[in-house]
Amino acid sequence: MLYLYDTATQEVRPLAMRQPGHVSIYLCGPTVYGPPHLGHGRATLVYDILRRYLTWTGIQVRLVSNITDIDDKIIDRANKENRPWSEITHKCEKIWFEAMVALNVEKPTDIPRATDYVDQMVAMIGELILRDGAYVTSDGVYMSVTSVSDYGLLAHQKIEDMLAGGGDREVFGAGEKKHPADFALWKFTKPGEPAWPSPWGEGRPGWHTECVVMSLQLLGEGFDLHCGGADLRFPHHENERAQAAALGKRFANHWMHNGFVVDAEGEKMSKSLGNVANLIDLVQHYDPRSYRMLLLQTHYRSPVRVGQDNIDASVKAVTSIDGFFARLGELANASPPDEATLLAFRSAMDDDLDTPGATAVMFDAIRRANTAVDAGDNATAGALAHAAREMCTAFGLVVNAFAAVSDDIAQKASLIDEARASKDFATADSLRNELQAAGYVVETTKEGTRVRRG
Ligand SMILES: [Zn+2]
Predict the structure, then answer these.
(1) Pairing relation of β-strands 22-27 and 225-229?
(2) How far is the CA of 60 from the centre of ligand 1 (A)?
(3) Of 211, 238, 258, which residue is a domain's last?
(4) 421 shares its domain with 296
(5) Would you say residue 400 lies in a domain?
(6) Residues 266, 254 within the same domain
(7) Is 413 in contact with 448 (CB distance < 8 Å)?
(8) Do 146 and 266 fall within a single domain?
(9) Any bridge partners for residue 351, and if so which?
(10) Same structural domain for residues 202 and 290?
């Protein structure tokens, strides 16, 4: 039984399943207007680990994760660059899924796009107005937060104590709002902006309306788990929940939020990681498995610092796992997994997804397997190695057997190091692109550039 901290009740409690053996999860997906940052990567990896673990234990997971393909930020960029907004969203969505493939994040079972659900959003807003939960102003339709008796439940703040608006998205329409925390459900559009018809005037939905409609539409009332980054707890998730509450609908049964990605002492990521400014840079310059490893070794609710030192350490850790299986992979096939190790693993994972504890169990099994094989005890080594392989599967950690590369490829890798040493990043990048195009994985390590077959 998996126990998870519930942000709403502020306690660790069992993840109840509406339908036994099946878990329904909604994860707020990306707003596609620019390159994904490391925080986006963390959220998808944390919930990918959760999903893979649940699947590994025999539970069927339905994971709905949306694409926000209409938003002020998308419109701003389209106007600034004088491009059609859909061109930006299509391109950014493609980049997003390429990064997800590189990170080995499994595709959600459902990927609703906000623009495909506008009719349902309009219908829901109409119902909120009928129930006196929303009102029309000169620039849109607003949710009245005072109509929801327990507004602030997720934020754990009283409505009076909340900051006016609570975020730049809420400043919109500040003048006519009845309460500073009221938020836009529908925004009337200006000429030239994307617009959909509604009984109140042409416009577009607000972000909080998108997720509540898509989650209820696809997963139904009382779905099991709603998750996302800690920054979404308020106002986004609070406002999703408020709409469902005002409609008299049961919403998520359990709320899960992962911690932030932070810089070391105010250092910007771009500085602390050389040429890494976002998620795309990270997966291009390092073994993408290193980010998953770093997050496995951090509790999902704690902040994580992504720096050169701990990325290097994570690259080393995944490389050591590769080396281990290159040595003991055959033995793992020959023995059933060590049950005591898997029990210890499950008890760590079931305890609010204690991945640092579970990862320690895995590395301990690897250490003991190495000792056993050195002592000639192949049966023990095989059982431990088999257990370690099971844990890799449950973590979504791919194990690579390193293949040797030819001399001219190795030569190109050393040219990359030379170019980087002389700060000729353009040459280093073009060599790296050349190798990647030829199907090689190019990793930056402390010892220099390492190239292997993808
Ligand atoms: Zn959302």
Answers:
(1) parallel
(2) 23
(3) 258
(4) no
(5) no
(6) no
(7) yes
(8) no
(9) 3
(10) no
The per-residue pLDDT for 274 is 64
222, 269: one domain = no
Nearest to 228 by CA among 35, 31, 50, 40: 40
Residue 176, pLDDT score: 86
Q: 94 lies in a domain?
A: yes
Q: What distance in Å separates the CA atoms of residue 306 and residue 290, rounded to the nearest whole number?
A: 11
CA dihedral sign of residues 200, 206, 212, 218:
positive
pLDDT of residue 333: 86
Amino acid (one-letter) located at 19: Q
Averaged in consecutive runs of 10 residues, what is the pLDDT profile of the chain (454 residues)?
Answer: 97 97 97 90 97 98 96 90 92 94 96 96 98 96 94 83 51 75 93 93 96 98 97 94 97 97 60 70 92 98 90 94 89 94 98 98 98 96 96 93 63 88 90 84 76 67
Domain tally, the chain: 3
Under a CB-based contact definition with an 8 Å cutoff, are residues 405 and 440 in contact?
A: yes
Centre of ligand 1 to C-alpha 155, Å, is: 15
Does 99 share its domain with 218? yes
Question: Any idea what the CATH number is for the domain that residue 28 is in?
Answer: 3.40.50.620
DSSP letter for 140, please. E
Residues 450/443, Cβ–Cβ less than 8 Å: yes
pLDDT of residue 268: 44
- Name the strand (E) or helix (H) holding 102: helix 85-102
How many helices (H) and strands (E) the chain has is answered by: 15, 14
72 part of a folded domain: yes
Compute, in angstroms, the gap from residue 211 CA to the centroid of ligand 1. Answer: 4
Q: Which domain holds residue 419?
A: 407-453
Query: What separation in angstroms does the CA of 285 have from each of 195, 275, 293?
Result: 40, 8, 16
Assign 41 to helix, strand or coil: helix
| 42 neighbors 5 (Cβ within 8 angstroms) | no
Distance 79 CA to ligand 1 centre (A): 25
Euclidean distance between CA atoms 174 and 140, whole angstroms: 11
Helix (H) or strand (E) holding 119: helix 118-130
Gap from CA of 383 to ligand 1 centroid (Å): 43
